[in-house]
Amino acid sequence: MFGLFKSVPSISTKELESLLSTQKITLLDVRSPGEYRGGHIQKANNVPLNKITTYKGKNTEPVYVICQSGMRSKNAAKQLKKMGYNVINVRGGMSQWTGKTRGGK
Question: Are the C-beta atoms of 19 and 88 separated by less than 8 Å?
Fold first, then answer.
């Protein structure tokens, strides 16, 4: 029974910000391409939630997942975990992010 509900670890946007400043990490933004263009974290790759199962990255290092509020990224993290990735969800998503963003008009 417990195997079904392995929880995905998560970090805050502040923790993410300090990670980004100290090391190279894999960060996936699972929002729509339009939302991503509206403003995203510089090192984030856009892999919309509906395409997350096509993601092909190294599964030797952690994959951080972010969306707007944390719901889609949690869903994406569960799918990536099933695919064998070591996934960390970013709680609060872009709505909590206070660091620099790129994109937008």
Answer: no
